[in-house]
Amino acid sequence: MSDTKDHTAEPDADDPQDHIETAVLPEGAAEQLGEGSYTDELAAARAEAEENWNKYLRIVAELDNVRKRNARELEKARNFGVEGLAAELLAVADSLEMALSTGSDAPAESLLEGGRNTLKQLQSALQKYGVTELYPEGEPFDPELHEAMTMQPSDTAEPNTVLTVVQRGYQLNGRLLRPARVIVAKEP
Question: Is the dihedral angle over the CA atoms 60, 63, 65, 71 positive or is it negative?
Answer without folding.
Answer: negative
